Every structure is written in C-alpha cells, then in structure tokens.
Amino acid sequence: MNTREKLTTVGTATLTTQLFKRGLRNTFIGGLQVLNPARERMCGEAYTLRYIPSREDLDRLEVFEDRSHPQRAAIEQCPAGSVLVIDSRCDASAASAGAILIARLMVRGAAGIVTDGGLRDTAEIAGLDFPSYCRAASAPTNLIRHHAVGINEPIGCGGVAVYPGDMMVGDREGVVVIPRHLADEVADASYDQERFEEYVMDRVKAGRSIFGLYPPDEATRAEYAARRKQG
After folding, report:
1. pLDDT digits (tens, 9 = 90+) for 55-74
2. Could you tell me which of 100, 50, 104 has the C-alpha nearest to residue 80?
3. Cis peptide bond prior to 215, omega within 30° of 0
4. What domains does the chain contain, in order, with CATH numbers?
5. Does residue 130 have a pLDDT over 80?
6. Which of 101, 126, 161, 208 could be disulfide-bonded to 203 (CB atoms 3.0-4.6 Å)?
7. Beta-ladder partners of 150
8. Which helix (H) or strand (E) holds 155?
9. Phi-psi region of 23 (alpha: psi -120 to 50; beta: other; left: phi over 0)
C-alpha cells in the first residue's frame, strides 16, 4: 500500500497520536461536520484559499464575472487529487462556497473541500459523492462576510496552520493536517498502530485487562509479534 492508501484506512485519532509522538500538538481541525456521511473519508494534498473580512465597496456580485477572482480561480485551479482548504477565519455567518462550485471541484477530480466557515446548498452538497467539511450550514453568499485574497499560500484553518502540499485526512471526527515531509512516516506508523489496536480490541472483548496490554509490556509485544508472524 502506498502512503495515500494507508492514510485512507486509518482514523484521525490515530494520526493525531502519531503526530503528538513527533512533537506536533496542533494538527486537528475540530468542530467540523461532513455533509455526506457516506463520503466521510478524505485524503489529499492541501490547495489553499484565504479570505479576509469583506468590504462593501469591493465585494459586489459582479466581482464573480472576473475570471481571476480568487475564489473562482481556486475552483478551476485546484489540482486533481488535492483538497481545497479555505481559511474563513472560523466565521460561518456566510458561506465559503456552494453546491455548484463544489460540484465543479468534484468533476475536476479534487479529493475534497474543507472550510472552517459555512457552506450553502448543504442538502445538495450532501447528495454529492464528494467529501465536504464545514463548520455549519450558511445561506448568505460569501461576499457578505468574506473577501478572497490568496490562493495556495500558508493559511490558518480552524486555528491550525495549513501549508500548500500538507496532507489533509478526514473522517467523521474531523480533519487532521499532516506536514508533507512527515506524510510517509506517519502513514506507516499509523497503519501499524491500527493493526496493533485491532489485536488489543480482540483481547479486551475476550475479557483481558488493559494493564500490560495497552500500552503493551514485553510479554504483549512478543505475543503480538508471534500473532503477526502467523498472519
């Protein structure tokens, strides 16, 4: 299995533990909801969009006619396999995007969308075969609260630093940000951790105490190693 395949099989809880072992504490974007529970799993490199507060003389509906408008450009430029990550300053009082833009991301092959703000048309988005994470449903257009200013630059999303190319992994609990230089290492360690935790869960369900099991002592490590050798 390659890195991306491993990351799509492990949970964000496991990933944050592995990142914590490497000294990284602020990697989880919490307080998000995935709009289509059937498409809760997400993995892809970050492609970012940054909003600042809107201003009435600049943010009018006609700005969307400009093909260089950063929100529109981000939708058309986000690479296949990447996740569009939007810094909305944790402000869900207006939408970061809506169903038409997200459908465009989907058909272009993006891996998902994450915003620490709102999304509109959430019933339609929930029907798309596409991982979409937001803080809340929000009907008003982004122009009411957000002015798009930057594409594919470092941002903050939900209080977490996101750099272009970081690996974004999502499940029902939320989204974790893995620094790109750690992605392979964390994927391997997380995959191994979850195989061990499956063994632990079997033992716990069979009535075994967690002491000496989780975390494992030398006897448990040896027992687990023998189980793995047996397949």
Report:
1. 999 999 999 999 999 999 99
2. 104
3. yes
4. 1-20+180-231 (no CATH), 25-178 (3.50.30.40)
5. yes
6. 208
7. 50
8. strand 155-157
9. left
Supply 157's token pair. 């999303």
- As beta bridge partners, residue 147 has 52
| 40, amino acid identity | E
Amino acid present at 120: R
Nearest Cα to 77, choosing from 116, 36, 52, 48? 48
What does the alpha-carbon distance between residue 211 and residue 205 come to, in Å, rounded to a whole number? 14
Claim: this prediction has a pTM higher than 0.90: yes
- Burial letters 18-31, b for 16+ CB under 10 A, else e: bbeeeebeebbbee
DSSP per residue, 175-194: EEEE-GGGHHHHHHHHHHHH
Q: What angle do CA 27, 29, 31 make, to 5 degrees?
A: 150
220: closest CA among 202, 231, 186, 185? 202
Averaged confidence pLDDT in the chain? 96
Token reading at 154: 């470092």
| Relative orientation angle of helices 12-21 and 183-205, to the nearest 10 degrees | 120
The model's pLDDT over 176-187, given as tens digits with 9 standing for 90+, comes to 999 999 999 999
